[in-house]
Amino acid sequence: MRIEAMMTTPEKDFQKQTLQLAEPKAGEVLVRLVASGVCHTDATVLDKTIPVPYPVVLGHEGSGIVEKVGENVTTVKPGDHVVLGFSYCGTCDNCLEGNAGGCENMIPLNFGGKNEHGVTPLATKENEEVSQFFGQSSFATYSTVDEKNVVKVDRDVDLRYLGPFGCGIMTGSGTVLNSLKPEPGDSLVVFGAGAVGLSGLLAAKIAGCHPIIAVDIHDSRLELAKELGATHTINSKNEDPVERIKEITGKGARHSFETTGVPEVTLAALRCLRVRGTCATVAVGKRDLTFNVFNDVVANSLTLRGVIEGDAVPQLIIPKLVTFFKNGQFPIEKLVKFYDLEEVDQAFVDSANGSAIKPILIIDKEYTA
């Protein structure tokens, strides 16, 4: 079938193209996309931090409505409302242990351009292969995905807000709830008050953390962090965050969550911890980090942990997050800014300059909640 998509090439970040999309085979689902979040991971492809085969259709925070299902699909049917998650194999040790985010095949399945069958459902009108991204390529009007990419959600929730639950919001909240696993009363610091960091902050509030400290360089984001539940905020341009965090907590923080990928920030996230504290990082950055293993980690028995997709299984965590959204515990509407699909370039500009915390592209302009 023919679809419209924003295709990315080495010469141009985004160009609207008519592409061919394969019909769903056994175990696959065709989704009519309503909206898609814009994520920092998409930007890391554009700046060549993460390589993918070109041409490619980016986007990996899709939400939409099931149009058609292939044989043997049992979890969804046409008409169901869904959020699209990342690709995982479901058969490696980590997947079988309940950590799809740690799938041993994460990189090839999400960045290799082809699905687990070694093909891409996307092609140009001239039958040139177009890489699929994260098993979904949601900057398009339709997507053919594996059943494992699809998470059914309640029909009474506005689909325009839900795409980021498939990556950014899942990553932030999952890192806190699944990876750090704070107990009520544990101190937690979030470095970077973007969509991922603020999602982690909201999860820390649900977990009963105290104090919850947000660190950023933008006062507007720190004000929003306070509105969402931060007990303290620190503008790291104006004061030393490590000194201030130790002043607030006494011994240092029990947990820190680093989202920026800036080496100096990662060091601060380590050095602000109390003895036996844990720092979780989800960041993608180009610059190397240099630290003294004994002084910065061993001496205080610290843990530095890398986390992918919040150590989450999308089918388990996304329905919980949607329930939090419905209950007002995850007020995502305070983070988002909507754009038309054709405004994708501006959405990335606004995300980079900080004027939009979580841009969302509206693909189906006729959709109403």
Structural notes for this entry:
Keywords: Metal-binding, Oxidoreductase, Zinc. Its cofactor is Zn(2+). InterPro entries: ADH-like_C, ADH-like_N, ADH_Zn_CS, ER, GroES-like_sf, NAD(P)-bd_dom_sf. This is Alcohol dehydrogenase. The chain is of the alpha/beta class. The chain has two domains: 2-166 and 335-362, Quinone Oxidoreductase, Chain A, domain 1 (Alpha-Beta Complex), CATH 3.90.180.10; 172-308, NAD(P)-binding Rossmann-like Domain (Rossmann fold), CATH 3.40.50.720. The chain has helices at 40-46, 93-96, 106-111, 168-180, 195-207, 219-228, 241-249, 263-271, 293-296, 314-326, 344-353, and strands at 2-8, 15-21, 28-37, 56-57, 62-69, 81-84, 122-123, 129-132, 142-146, 150-153, 188-191, 212-216, 232-235, 253-258, 273-281, 303-306, 336-340, 358-362. Strands 3, 5, 6, 9, 10, 17 and 18 form a seven-stranded mixed β-sheet that branches. Helix 11 (344-353) links the parallel strand 17 (336-340) and strand 18 (358-362). Helix 4 (168-180) crosses helix 5 and helix 4 (168-180) packs across helix 10 (314-326). The chain is globular.
How many beta-strand segments?
Answer: 18
SSE pattern: EEEHEEEHHEEEEHEHEHEHEHEHEHEHE
Q: How much of the residues is beta strand, in percent?
A: 25-35%
What's the CATH architecture name of the largest domain?
Alpha-Beta Complex
| Low-pLDDT runs | none
**Straight-line distance between termini:** 26 Å
Radius of gyration of CA atoms, rounded to a whole number: 20 Å
CATH hierarchy class name of the largest domain: Alpha Beta
Into how many domains do the coordinates divide? 2
- Main sheet summary: 7 strands, mixed
Q: Which bin fits the share of residues in helices?
A: 25-40%
Number of helical segments? 11
CATH topology group of the largest domain = Quinone Oxidoreductase, Chain A, domain 1
Please state the structural category.
alpha/beta
As an assembly, this protein is single chain
What is the typical, i.e. mean, pLDDT? 95
